[in-house]
Structures
1.
Amino acid sequence: MTPGRADLHVLRGIMEPWGAAVVAYSGGADSAFLATVAHQVLRDRMVAVTAVSPSLAASERQDAADFAAEIGFRHLEVETHEMETAAYRANDGDRCFWCKDALMDALEPVAADLGARIALGVNLDDLGEHRPGQQAAAQRGAEFPLVAAGFTKSDVRAASRKLRLRTWDKPAAPCLASRVPYGTQVNLEVLGRVERAEAALRGLGFRDLRVRHLDGAARVEVPLDDLPRVVELREQVVDAVRSAGYRRVSLDLDGLRSGNLNDDLP
């Protein structure tokens, strides 16, 4: 398969011989698409599993459950315990490795009970980014069927739209820990503060955003097209973020860039 030559028939063909599958399912565009297609192929022999931990926003957890109910595929929630790992809390450049390691700890017993393969919604675009979590999952036998079938992020969205999945244009929603600069410890208080700030901003109508945690300060990132509206609602934006516990609020004039904290890695 040539990179970028996505083929839904190939994706289905990859999963047909599996017998059963466990799909790591956050409810984002990639995992929702993969779970839906796996359900079409394997029916009740596919189960979508959502990892529940303090790094998963409550709104994302609920949306994942709602989407699973809408489509009608099997959905389980399992608790993961990455916060118990000192290397994860230390938040060095390999934090995602320990997160995916904890995810595999939770998925493997489910897969063993079903005699199933474990699949993650990694696409071709993800391969070019700093994603140590992919390494952790691959080392433990997880499979990336979207990569094998040639899907980029835009391919996933296009195919999702064709299948009339409401997630086709859902903004990316990486874990809350991704808002914390490397080297700043991840803890429950920090994750809770980020979640409250982002929820408050969504309450103002901002759909795609990040609140980067910079100790007592917060840096708000939105797409460039939304910058004027942030300025227009400046007082409400500041009040919303301060209500989450931040003393200072700034706006990133470069706009939202997913994964931009990776720029600080050596």
2.
Amino acid sequence: MAGLGVKEVTLIGGEAYLRDDWTQIVRAIRASGMQCSITTGGRGMSSARAEAAKAAGLQSVSVSVDGLPSTHDDLRGVRGSFDAAIQAMRNVRAAGIPVAANTQVNRLNLHELEAIFEVLAAEGIHGWQVQLTAAMGRAADEPELLLEPYQMLDLMPRLARLKSRADERRVRLFPGNNVGYFGPHESTLRAHYPSKHTGSCGAGRVTLGIEANGDVKGCPSLPTADYVGGNVRDHSLRDIWERAAPLRFTRERTPRDLWGFCASCYYAEACLAGCSWTTHVLFGRPGNNPFCHHRALELWREGKRERLIKTRPADGEPFDYGRFEIVEETWPAADRDRAELWMETTQERRTS
């Protein structure tokens, strides 16, 4: 990885610390000149493990917190998960490791985001990543967890306000790759980007993922069956990175590969339908991303919105997904007043 020019490695799971050699891996990454962090649910991040991580050279730990106590525990399926996550943060900080947090945004926690941030900021986080819950794994089995595409009109102004609050608290709020897309808040949320807005999918261009068995993908979130380009036990990582088609797909994508709304979008060439993971697990292929703020705004101006309907269940395998269809409809009168408030917030941000 270092020979390819990798700068940072994040160990994810499951829980990376369940491997007996996890601190060896941290030491090897650091000895090779790369930064190393861990993302964890925090269930077993004890003081002893945090101290071992510090001794091995770990530089940051991001703890997943997906709601206030009741919501987080519901999403995790285990009572006490929230308390364990907060305790993990405290253990990590006590060991002298900077701590961050990450949150998957969905229908259960959308209206808790402001309160979640205040809880996390009080724990001394240096960064907070937010991304949309995608229709993979359990979320494919429980689609009622997923945001509807039109809820981007609510989410994006919320995140823009939270970004200002995060700046006040000296917390770096950074949206994941499946959040945004050329709406009026992009320059606020991605001020640290040279372009000040989201680009196209970075899988196989700026990221790669290596699974526990050695399978290599352009991004660790991508479905395994569709995107593995090879295994490091059979081929060198350089050969897989440079030659395997499943890792090259974003390098060769053009607007001609897009479909649906994205094919005719003004930003098609720059965006190329955004996050491939989010769209593939909805439709079985990338190229048409309904979770787009610009798209939701354009449809709003026409009095329309989009919803997702599940048409096929997931098959029960790791990294699985089902199938969904997009339904375009006229905004119901009962929902228009609420949407008007979202739009007023967006307009305020544009003129301030």
3.
Amino acid sequence: MTLTYKPRLGLALSGGGARGIAHIGVLKALEHANIQIDYLAGTSMGGLISAVYAAGLTPAEIESIALEYRQARKLLKLADPTIPRQGLFHGKQMHVFFEKHLQDYKFSDLRIPLTLVAVDLNSKKEVHLNEGSVADAVRATVSVPGVFAPIEHDGQRLVDGGILNNLPVDIVRQMGADIVLAVDINSTNGEASFWQLLGQKRFISSTIGGSIAVLGDSLELLMHQNTVCKLQQFPPDFLLQPSIPKGVTILTGFDRAADLIEEGVVVTQPILSDLEKALRPRFKWRRSKHA
């Protein structure tokens, strides 16, 4: 006998700070094509966008928020500088922002199964967050080391999952996805990195600016190489790599939100036809007990 089986689609969204706004355009293109996402996995900015989408916000609503916060005065409201002990920012105001848009959602409340990636500095292991408070999990996955203070919880010190798994293709596959679409927004176009720009700031350039640039660039290099290895080990069925406009880094370029979103739409359109074909219902043969 035969059974009709519809392949399940998993979407893996990478970290990359402001560059991750391009993920919104990918979601817009998928929605316009009526392509349903069955599983989501995200790291850092990819984790934030996948979380609000899984919670029920439409791509248009997420786009509206991104465009609102492209203004510097809005972004500054999320900044809470601290004496740099564990990070440049506490991250408390950012957590308030997450709670506003995710309310008191638990992972069990989400309309799409979701896993976020963080790293525990104590155990030195990758952590998959898929239970409890979604806002807390988002705060953990976006905690770029040195920029935001880690989240300390239950004996763990959680930071940005991009250190070990910036593009969680393997995770969304483990969740049950038959077809995986991965979006990697970690391109830099050879420009000065956020860390180099930070090191050039007047108040630190004459002291530890050079050290910050070297350490930060080394971290990004390790993350990039780790992603390359992960993609070889766990290749997705479809891989998108949007072109990132000049001046967009981890924490700079939010004012280019409209361009980033449009690039996400543009880079997704060429694969839609093949993706739709891959997701068509299939006939699965199953042997009868009496055969």
4.
Amino acid sequence: MLLTGAAGFIGRRVHAALRGDGHDVVAVDAMLPAAHGVAVELPADCRRLDIRDAEALAPLLAGIDLVCHQAAVVGAGVNAADAPSYAQHNDYGTAVLLAQMFAAGVQRLVLASSMVVYGQGSYECPRHGVVDPPPRTRSDLDAGMFEHRCPLGGEVLAWRLVDEAAPMRPRSLYAASKTAQEHYALAWSESTGGSVVGLRYHNVYGPAMPRDTPYSGVAAIFRSALERGEPPAVFEDGGQMRDFVHVDDVAAANVAALHSQSDGFVAVNVCSGQPISILEVASLLSAARGGAAPVVTGRYRSGDVRHIVADPARAAGLLGFRAAVQPGQGLREFAFAPLRA
């Protein structure tokens, strides 16, 4: 099989899991400085390849039966100037890969997608039931009112589990590109008869996570603050709910997807199934390291999602995948895990 993005935070763990499952893996990575820095060496078992280069990609697909596509520019995007980078690498790179798979007769794809395709998540009103709230207003956020309000009566909404049937409503550059990847993969599947398992990763964390970049996950940002002797700075009131899933579980989900017999395109949440608040994440890390307690700042970032928590049922039913690492255990271990510069 061909594995793209094999030198990345998730890609390395996926690579190891695939080999552990007995697969012959052709591993490639473009080694973009934004993801790897300038001093990181290419792993010995990985080739440097930009999947946008169709001429270089084509020979590697000869004899391949499946592609596991992890390569992507990640993060929400610092500003609108990042849009071309997301479009070039995520949108166009995936389109080139799919075209070359078609030319080589490769019929199976496992695609790394993301929870960001869901936008702001799913909510329920105590009076009106399931509703789709508008984005939070600046006036509410400035007043410390962080929860969504019902568009019908103004009631405070409660979060609901997001399942794979939820509409795709991207709210960032990265989200737009991951949505595009899924759409390209769906169209490819329908036109070629190929099968696609789109794995919608939720908040991935674990050893070798990148640190101190605009693309770092919040768990790594909290870790870095504690290492500097500072308390983790928690935005809003810390009540934002998420699903944190360990990178080893993400790798296991990829192995499970390889064994799936599903036809066509199917999307699957990859999550722990154990909702946790951002304040709880910060508090767990602080307690584990014996550091200062988190500081709830009340600050907010425009466009941030309030709650997004995954429904794990389809992954369990379709792939037989259930996360093995619970957030409490995994985050305590992550408090001292090595990070990547």
